[in-house]
Design goal:
Chain lengths: ~425, ~400
């Protein structure tokens, strides 16, 4: 099976979970015999043995879109000035499309597998020009990124067109599948769920040194419960509700710390809010963290909260489970469909979240059972299983497309059957 | 030689389920019980209580020798008084025949015996008073919640004046001994022990409609042959199960009611008999003394209490609740004590069970809550309110 995968990032040059998911997915598919070429919008040395990585531009990873998130409000604004001139995200996408269509002129593939709106246009262009079946893999829609009901209409339009043109859509959760159906009016039978996977072995055990987080550990020693979240600080993640719930919970149990790890456009708002709520002393903003710091924060957390207003999947829940935290997550997430040994709430329900935080912090039994039980179940979705789902989707799509083409070539047959 | 005798015993119970009771209501709203209770009761009443009680009445009318036993919890009777007055009347009619025994137990279907013996005694007395009030009878046979039994329980209930006690006929305890004999319990006063024949009981209670079961479908004819075989040497066949087996666990469309009616007919025709538990226990000489130092229940493959106290949440929740009892009793507040007792109902702990809560196996799980952890949350908040009131 020759697969042309269209992606926007791979580790280590990733800004979020998309790159991680693409990497593990491609790896698992390659192990099952997939012959993969992976197109990136930038040039970098990935030293990847299991697939062929193609660079659509000569830009370096940072130039792709200024090293972090693009500006939702103005897609044509240059995000980075460089020796190559100023580039907007739309400029980079245009080059990406050009590269993909050129590449297909001389290369044959069985399927094109495009990830998210960033590469969907290229997938559609390639399908139109060469007739290769298109699989659209949706990790997040503009509805998720904008935290609900807004978002950029141009991105919505690109998503809608790509979803209509795709021969099959893979959604990272049933939650996302429903959202695609409801907001983009795509029939449900065209959308299959391929949950993201998690391989604990990829992470391995981590030898956490409490000295790395001396202040937090000192608080723990004096009876504090540490509640943590690792997230981009942006509206999608529901952090305002988390902060308000935390303030409510403190009224019942003052011995709690909230660690908010990450950075983003909402940081100042959250800082101001924690001051306004009078809880600043008990809220720790770590700023952007990476590598060992991420593992330290996971390891020190008694409770990990994923507070997203809309989360297509939510890999951090698995990572937190791996590091031994009790996991609390919103029902508006894909991972809530997969993990059972967690507490779930609706993102807006600050009272319920406060209730949960107080109860876990005051009950050794509940804390222990949650931490222990989630570790028993979080291994149930290895990437190899996800790869089986995706390969199945490839095969059914190829069958469907072939049958459709066959029917189209013989119009007289259809007429006879209809008569 | 006496006729082979079936000792049919059916258990009726409904708990006061706790609604999603929030921490923010603690100290403000003392009503923990939601509309779920009425909804569930009405559903089960329609599917099971009314049709099965009607069928049992019909069989009593038709066969002057038909007899059986029930256990009816106090919380069930409270539900029925609120939403099923006709069911109380049906029960009264049955008891009036003199061929239906209502076995004693804890009013609140609790595990109080394992936490506080005085409270256990109070709950048993409360139950006896309620049964006397509604039905005018009092039994000297006892069954503990979930048939949770050990030698200490036998000693306790013997001292309370009971003459017969029910327990699980678990192979590990019985060894070569069959569940169809009468035994003596290991107690300092005379106490007869009747043991459940779990194979033949569970064929009806659990396997009846299981299409994967090699004996499916189970006909009255086939079951009659098994019942005969079980009573070739042993005088009794003790069939103990939930009343809700009929119509709720096994829906009417599985043919459970017809099966039961037909089987009773055939059993009489083949010269079999039925008996109430107290009559059966004293119609035969005890075969042996049976000792159960460890607690045995009728639940799960383990036949222990792990479904109620198997995880840390459950143990903590029960310890928290019972630790409040001395303070509560001092308050002389009937409503507070009543709420404490409703929270002592074992179902709350059962909802927190995580034994079968793995790999998303939701189907095997029967609960009023989204997860065992949610159950813990709501019940703990309710216990907090009781704590608050006790210290007000």
């Amino acid at each position: 099976m020759r697969i042309l995968m269209l992606g926007w990032e791979l580790p280590p040059h990733n800004s979020g979970g998309l790159g991680v998911a693409c990497y593990h997915m491609a790896h698992a598919l390659a192990k099952k015999g997939g012959d993969i070429s992976f197109v990136l919008p930038y040039q970098a040395d990935h030293n990847c043995k299991f697939m062929n990585i193609l660079a659509a531009t000569h830009l370096d990873p940072l130039e792709r879109f200024g090293g972090s998130a693009y500006d939702h409000l103005d897609l044509t604004a240059p995000t980075f000035e460089s020796d190559h001139g100023g580039f907007s995200i739309r400029d980079v996408q245009a080059k990406y499309i050009e590269f993909v269509t050129k590449h297909l002129k001389d290369n044959n593939y069985d399927v094109i597998h495009a990830h998210d709106w960033l590469t969907l246009e290229a997938g559609v262009a390639a399908k139109l020009a060469y007739g290769v079946p298109l699989i659209a893999h949706i990790h997040a829609t503009e509805f998720d990124r904008s935290g609900g009901d807004r978002g950029n209409p141009i991105i919505h339009e690109i998503e809608r067109e790509g979803l209509l043109m795709a021969d099959k859509i893979l959604a990272v959760s049933e939650y996302t599948r429903r959202l695609i159906h409801e907001h983009y009016e795509i029939p449900l039978d065209k959308i299959e769920v391929a949950h993201n996977g998690f391989d604990p072995d990829e992470w391995g055990e981590y030898d956490y040194d409490p000295a790395n987080l001396a202040y937090i550990e000192q608080k723990k020693q004096s009876g504090y419960t540490v509640i943590s979240t690792i997230s981009r600080l942006t509206i999608q993640k529901g952090l305002v509700h988390l902060l308000r719930a935390f303030a409510l919970a403190l009224k019942f149990n003052p011995k709690m710390l909230l660690v908010i790890a990450g950075d983003g456009d909402q940081r100042d708002e959250l800082l101001a809010l924690s001051a306004e709520l009078g809880v600043m002393q008990k809220v720790l903003f770590t700023g952007f963290i990476r590598g060992r710091e991420i593992r330290d924060i996971y390891s020190s957390a008694d409770i990990f909260v994923m507070s997203s207003r809309s989360e297509p999947f939510g890999l951090t829940a698995f990572e937190a489970a791996h590091h031994g935290s009790a996991v609390v997550l919103t029902r508006q997430s894909g991972v809530a469909e997969v993990l059972m040994n967690v507490l779930k709430y609706d993102f807006w329900d600050e009272h319920r979240l406060a209730d949960i935080l107080v109860n876990i912090s005051q009950s050794k039994g509940l804390m222990e059972d949650l931490q222990k039980d989630v570790r028993r179940e979080y291994t149930k979705l290895p990437w190899s299983k996800v790869a089986d789902v995706i390969l199945g989707a490839y095969k059914s799509t190829l069958r469907g497309v072939a049958a459709f083409k066959a029917a189209r070539l013989k119009p007289e047959k259809r007429a006879r059957r209809a008569g | 030689m006496s006729k082979p005798t079936i000792v049919l015993y059916l258990h009726m119970h409904q708990p006061w389920r706790v609604r999603p009771y929030s921490l923010f209501e603690v100290g403000k709203d003392h009503n923990y019980y939601g509309s779920d209770n009425e909804r569930v009761f009405n559903k089960v009443a329609e599917k099971s209580y009314r049709p099965m009680l009607t069928l049992l009445g019909k069989l009593l009318d038709k066969h002057p020798d038909f007899a059986f036993s029930l256990s009816v919890t106090g919380t069930f009777l409270e539900h029925a008084e609120l939403w099923g007055g006709d069911i109380i009347k049906q029960l009264q009619e049955l008891v009036k025949t003199g061929r239906v025994e209502i076995v004693a137990e804890t009013y609140h279907h609790s595990l109080a015996f394992f936490y506080n013996e005085a409270e256990f005694e109070d709950q048993v007395k409360m139950h006896q008073a309620k049964i006397k009030e509604l039905f005018g009878v009092q039994s000297t046979a006892f069954r503990n919640t979930e048939l949770a039994y050990n030698d200490a329980l036998a000693e306790k209930v013997a001292n309370m004046g009971f003459k017969t006690v029910l327990a699980e006929g678990w192979d590990k305890i019985l060894g070569w001994r069959g569940p169809g004999y009468v035994y003596d319990a290991k107690a300092s006063k005379p106490l007869r022990l009747l043991l459940k024949n779990y194979r033949l009981s569970d064929d009806i209670a659990f396997r009846f409609s299981d299409k994967k079961w090699s004996e499916h479908p189970l006909s009255a004819q086939k079951y009659l042959a098994w019942a005969k075989e079980a009573t070739i040497n042993q005088p009794l066949l003790n069939l103990f199960m939930d009343f809700e087996t009929f119509g709720e666990h096994q829906w009417a469309d599985t043919g459970i009611f017809k099966f039961f009616e037909k089987f009773v007919e055939m059993w009489f025709k083949s010269d079999g008999a039925f008996a109430k538990v107290s009559d059966a226990a004293y119609a035969h000489e005890p075969k042996d003394v049976i000792s159960m130092p460890e607690t045995v229940t009728w639940a799960d493959t383990e036949r222990d209490l792990t479904a109620w106290v198997g995880n840390a949440m459950q143990r903590e929740s029960l310890a928290h609740l019972y630790s409040l009892l001395p303070e509560i009793k001092k308050r002389n507040d009937d409503k507070l004590l009543y709420d404490f007792r409703n929270l002592s109902t074992s179902d709350h702990s059962y909802y927190m069970c995580t034994k079968y809560w793995n790999d998303g196996d939701v189907h095997a799980y029967f609960s009023a809550y989204e997860s065992p952890y949610d159950a813990f949350l709501f019940v703990t908040n309710a216990i907090r309110d009781v704590e608050y009131r006790a210290r007000m």
